[in-house]
Structures are given as C-alpha cells and as structure tokens.
Amino acid sequence: MLKGLTSKLNNWLQRNTIVRNLEFFQDFIIISLCLGLFCVMLIRLGDMFFSFLHPLDLRQVTSDILFILILVELFRLLIDHLQQQRTSVTAAVEITIVSALREVILRGVLEISRDQIFGIAIFLLVLTGIMVALPWISRFLEQVTTIAIFVAVIFGQFEAGLARPYDAVKAVLNMHTLLGWSLSGIIAAITAWRYVLRTRNPEKLPIHYMVAGLFLTLIVGLQVYLGDELVWVYGLHTVPVVEALKNGILR
Amino acid sequence: MNSELIDQLSTQLGTNGLPYTIPIHPNLVHFTLGLFIIGVTFDIVGVLFPLEIWVFKYFAITVKRANFFDVGWYNMIASSIITFFTVGAGFYEMLLAAPPTDVKSAWGLQAMQTMIWHGIGGVFLLALIVGMTIWRGWQRYIWDKQAYKQTDREVQWIYLFAGIAIMFIMFIHGTLGAQLATEFGVHNTADNLLRLGQDLNTTLK
Q1: Count of A–B CB contacts within 8 Å?
Q2: Residue whose C-alpha is closest to residue A157's, from A120, A198, A200
Q3: pLDDT for A58-74, tens place per residue?
Q4: What residues contact residue B143 under an 8 Å CB cut-off, 6+ apart?
Q5: Which among B61, B194, B205 has CB closest to A168?
Q6: Residues of chain B whose pLDDT is less than 50?
Q7: In this predicted complex, what is the ipTM?
Q8: How far apart are CA B85 and CA B79, in angstroms?
Q9: Residue B104's beta-bridge partner residues?
C-alpha cells in the first residue's frame, strides 16, 4: 500500500521534472525571441533617425513609428507569455488591428480602392467582434486555436510581401487576401454560433442565423469570383504566366 | 477544336476564347467534387458512428446516427444533378478550346490527348456518380427497410469502398483538367494575351 503510494509519488515527481524542463526550454526560446525583437527594434529605430536626415516623408515616418509600436506590442505579448505561461489573445488582436491600420496609413486612405476599404472595414469589424466576444467564446473554444489563427494572420502579412504577382494583379489579389482573412474569422464565428444554437435546440434555427448565413454565402461567392479572376483572367500559377515572370517579360 | 471553325464565331468570343470571361466548367466541377466527397465522407462517419460516440459526447454535440446518413444521401443526389451541368458546360467549353499544339503536359500528353481523356473520363464519371446515387437510394429505401435487417447502418461497406475508388479516379481526372488550365492555358485570358505577345500590365488594366 505504502510502496504503491511512494512509486506513484515518484512517477508524479518525474513527470513534474519533465514538464519543468520542457517549460524551461520554452522560456529559453521565448527569451531569445525577445532578444531578437529587441535588436530589430533598435535597427528600425536607427533607420528612422537616419531617415530624418533626408527630406521628411511624413507617411513613411508614421508607418515606421507604427511598425515599432507593433514590435513593442509583440514584445509585450512575449512578456505576457513569460509571466503567465499562456498567450494573451487580446494582445494579439490588438497587434493585428494596429498592423492593418499601418497598412492603411502607409498607402493613404484616399488612394485605396473602394473594394479594399470595404474589405479592411469588414476585417476590422471582425477583429473588434472577436475582441468583444472573446470572454464569451473562450468558454467554448481553446484559446490555442484562436491564437493560431492570429499568428497565421500576422505572418500572412509578412509573407504576402514575398509573393511576386505582376502589377496588374495586385488590386484583385489584395482584395482576395483580405477577404480570405475576414472569412476565416467570420466562418469561425458563425460555426461557434451554430454550435450554441444546436446545443440549445437542434430542431430550430432563428431567422437571424439564416440572414447571417445568406450574407456569408454572398461573401463566399464574391471571394470565389475574385479567385476565378486571379486564375482565369490574370493567369496566376499557370505555366505561361509563371514562365513570363521568371524570364522577366512580365513584372 | 479546329481553329478555322472556331473563327466562324470569332466576333462573339473574347480573348479567352469564350463569350464570357470566367469559364463555367471549372467552377461547377467544385460542386461535383465537394458534394460527392462530403456525401461519401458523411456515410463513412455514419457507418463508423459507434466508434465516434465519445467524441460527440465530449464536445456536447447532440447527434443521431441517421443524421449522417441523411447528409450522405442528399449530397449524393445534389452531386449527380449538378454533374449533368458540369459535363454539359465542359463539352461546350471544350468545343471552343484552342490550346497550343507544341506543348506537352507534365504527364507527357499533348493537348488533344489530354482533352479526349478528360472528356471521355467526364462522361464515364457522370455515369459512375449517377449509378452511385441510384445505389445509395436503393440502400436507403429498400435495403435499409428489410424486415430482418439487424442494424441501423444504412449503407453497405462495399458502397463506401466504391466511393473511395471513385474519388481516386476523380483525382486523376481532375489533374488532367488542371493541366488543361495551367499548362495549356485553355480559356485563360492572361495566357492567350502572352501567346499574342502582349504586355499584361497594359492590356489587363
């Protein structure tokens, strides 16, 4: 009896050590991320001061400042993670909002096409909705899933810069990308809603839900149309266009 | 198709060789695929239901086994209805296709071979999908209602295996279609413009 108890205790202790070691490595990774971010911030800051020497481009400076703010927020996210051992979703949403706004400022509101403004507006609305609904959602969903989406969105922003579409495509591609982000949020929200409805009563659907579903269908239809344009009109990812881009015939 | 014959219509056709900018067949085909795959998948989930009960319990999802079979059946019907339109649109757009003659696909086929295989395969798959729907209906309304049947499993195992085999054929068949689009550039505005030697950034603005 006593023997069984001690071996159980032993087991538990060992598991505890393993977890502690894993957490230690996790912390180590996060600390190195913090250091890396610190260096990036310093470099950006230096760049910004040097850019003051040239004639002042107000928009560029504003966007630089916002970029540093985003980095600071990311830093805070990491600190939060170190202190509480979990990622704060609200902070991630705030970062996403700020980075979306930075894109808007960088290009100037008046120079963005109506479609894109519309997309950004939906995107921001969804983000706000998530921020408001977060305490409510977190009862149902693992925080990890939400954070995964936002990390994907933040990295998506960096990676969108890596794609090399030619000039004529950019407007449609941006709209398609933006709508794609928004759809991931909207669909997740509608799924959560549907889940709640079904848990309450699997036999009934309120009219609001049907209207929202119709709205979602319309947005998906628009998204499909944009994707069709990218492939069938602009020929993205088709061999002739890819070859032309590679050979420098197309830019 | 013979380019001189297509030229008889040239006043009505755009740069992509169609009277409209976005081809219909590649859009409809996603309905065919999606509905068929969802239909079979939900039947699989329904058949394996006893193994999954704990998952639904864990997520507090209230569900009955028959719900999955309903989804399987209705998706199958929808798939076979929409596939008639898919095949129809496909043949119309294939009649107007004028792919380059000097290109070979990744599978070593030329444009005409790819089109013939994709066309014949399409009719063949249409027959398979309709056959599967009839089979599914028979299982739902006759096989399932037999007096001596012991379980509430609505579909036969062999049907599910047939469904998975057809999905595999669809995958190969779809790759042929995708090659027509991406490698031969059939009905693609940008690809046709490039072939005419035009600059996309000025013509597509």
Answers
A1: 80
A2: A120
A3: 777 777 788 888 888 88
A4: B149, B156
A5: B205
A6: none
A7: 0.83
A8: 10
A9: B110
